[in-house]
Design brief:
Elements: E1 16-18, E2 21-24, E3 29-37, E4 45-49, E5 52-57, E6 62-64, E7 69-75
Antiparallel strand pairs: 1-2, 2-3, 3-7, 4-5, 5-6
The structure holds zinc ion (2 copies).
One zinc ion is lined by residues 37, 39-40, 42, 57, 59-60.
């Protein structure tokens, strides 16, 4: 289990982890955790390997360690 703290980009409240994703109690809004490449800014594909997450950039064509990715919390758009 990750112990990292995750905060709402809108109100800076701590996000709650739910089965569908992160949720801000204050804003009543679900958020998606997305990772972007530090070097080219492309959205990374998350890979699960042996319990630890790593990220793959299809643009750089290489695996990125957590220190080389930019984590962004994006509001989950309502399905129309
Ligand atoms: Zn919030
Ligand atoms: Zn890249």
């Amino acid at each position: 289990m990750s112990q990292s703290q995750n905060y709402c980009p809108d109100c800076q409240s701590e996000l709650v982890w739910q089965p569908e994703g992160y949720f801000c109690d204050f804003c009543q809004q679900p958020f998606r955790k997305e990772a972007y490449c530090n070097e080219c800014g492309v959205r990374l594909e998350k890979l699960q390997a042996c319990g630890s997450a790593s990220y793959f950039c299809h643009c750089c064509n290489e695996l990125k360690s957590k220190s080389r990715v930019k984590i962004v919390f994006a509001p989950q758009a309502e399905a129309q």
